[in-house]
Amino acid sequence: MKPSERIVIELHRDGEEVPGFREELRGSLSERPRRIPSKYFYDERGSELFEEICELPEYYPTRTERALLESHATEIVEESGAEELVELGSGAATKTELLLDAMEAAGRLRLYVPFDVSHTMVEQVAHRLAERYPELEVHGLVGDFLGHLGKVPVGGRRLAALLGGTIGNLYPGQARRFLTGVAESLAPGDCFLLGTDLIKPVAVLEAAYNDARGVTAEFNRNILRVVNRLTEGDFDPEAFRHRAFFNVQDHRIEMRLVSARDQTVHLPALELEIEIAAEEEILTEISTKFDRPKAETLLAASGFELVHWYTDAENRFALSLSRRV
What we know:
The chain contains 9 helices and 14 strands. By secondary structure, it is of the alpha/beta class. Strands 1-5-4-3-6-7-14-13 form an 8-stranded mixed beta sheet, with helices on both faces. It has a 4-stranded mixed beta sheet with strand order 2-12-9-8. A two-stranded antiparallel ribbon has the order 10-11. Helix 2 (44-53) packs antiparallel against helix 8 and helix 3 runs parallel beside helix 4 (96-105).
């Protein structure tokens, strides 16, 4: 069967448009402090910038997680017994191939489900992997996995994965509800692989979000361009500067955009006009950091039992393999 004949892609998002985005953005931009949900980072340009961030010398999570997968993918696949891999927030899926290689070597590679907000990314990943793995079926999903988790196709023995520390972008209650939904989408005995960035010295954490080349700053400002397109708005991205710092009390990095001057922003599609003062901040992302007890507590509260905890020698990043109880 030709690679293209083994690919199905479902669209649950029309371009950048997220269902209910008007109500969500109207509400979040009217709050104090104002905020923009981090899902709006990921238009095509935002996805490209994030892939660039992952290669920066300051940004340790991607290379550390990749090294953990290189060391433990075979064990993870053996423990899970999975023949299907569902990846939430798949992005370019470069690390994913380590799991797919291990599944192929075990003779249990049947289906890969990449789930991402970027249609371009899902298309590229689907065709690349269908070409690489001659027996692999790919069922791509384009949408917001927080809202479209129920669209994941029912299947056989599977491993679900949320890599890259993405769970840290959710607030505690939101993370618990989401992981409960992931557990409910799996059959008892299925496994879940979770990547978590770990608590470490503040200087290391803050450097990862304030790179010398300014790629993260451009990624942060790009969220305003996405909002402009969705709302016919007139945010001036260059009138904001990037700020990222570690909130010690909540164990999380916070990314913000700081207004360089007093300004009025018009958002016609939201029927909203907002006055932003000089030095006023818009919260665009949180990235909570974990330790093992904190991660294990979250997993247990969501319906998972921790099976293995993998971390690097410097204790910077962890992969946890859990089983749906």
